Amino acid sequence: MKKKLASILVCPICKSEKLKIDSFKEKSKEIIDGLISCNSCNNVFPIVNSIPRMLPSSMRDNVEFYLKYKEKIELPKEDINQIEDFLKKKGKTKERFGFQWKIGEKAYPNKEATQHEVQKMIQASDLNLFKGKLVLDAGCGNGQPASVVAKYAKNLVAIDINESIDKVLENTNNYDNVCIVQADICNLPFKDNTFDFIYSNAVLHHTPNTKKAFQRLVKLVKNGGDISIGVYWKSPKIISRIAVANLSFIRIFTKRMPKNILYKLCWFAIPLNKIPLINTALIKSGILFYNPEIPTNEWTQLGQYDRLAHQYQRYHTEDEVMNWFKESGLSNMVSNPEYRVCVRGHKN
Q1: Domain containing residue 47
Q2: Is 287 within 8 Å of 343 (Cβ atoms)?
Q3: Measured between alpha carbons, how far is 254 from 248 in angstroms, rounded to an integer?
């Protein structure tokens, strides 16, 4: 953990700023292994492999760390209800996204495609928009977009809920201006009014409540800052609504399937995409994934898995998302619905 990150951290459970940070192993100005303790609610969060792990289940998820440093760690009485509630609501999301990003490293688009995706998401072609700013990547996946934004931002904080956060460290380790945190986007460990720019692409619709997750992010933006989100688009076209209904029905079964089996079954999306007429019918019906901008076999299989695997998956109209921005007091909104509704707004 880069020590400069400490100035913006709060406890994700009680939001107290009274945190104690102990370093067990350091390198230069970075804590490799350590412990973050909340003096208000007594929760503790390990720093493992340079990454603060700030989830209710983090100590339980990092048993080797605890065994290595147990003489230096005083654990509070476990709040079983708190951990069980987190695992019930977010455990499957954490597990399935972690699996997706680990298997999808080779499938992820190249730097040019990633930069284009970032430009679409923030509704701006000039990434100098990030220059001189403290930026939050809220749901960074495997870190490819973060590695693009880091070239422009003064400092970038990247968060995600799952273990693929270690892959983000690999993809961004050439940048001294990147700080990485494992955290829940619905309970982020940062002070309000902290960031100059927050972006979150294709993440919020995978939370229990998309609007509430967005509203929590708005609180973290400084006055004079900007926020940009991308969520799945609910098209007004009847055929698109039917496609979403078809997919929602199929997901009743697929989101309960073991992730390894589901991913293997998603391989069939590759040959199906190559059969004329059948592929068109299946794509329009919402059953089959295809992205013409990245038509590789690996990306097709991963995309098919992505639309079938996750616990939560919601779709929103452009008007609905624009109203969230207005209700939050944001202005100067720009949007562009394609397969996602991407909206950027300014906090006055």
Answers
A1: 3-78
A2: no
A3: 10
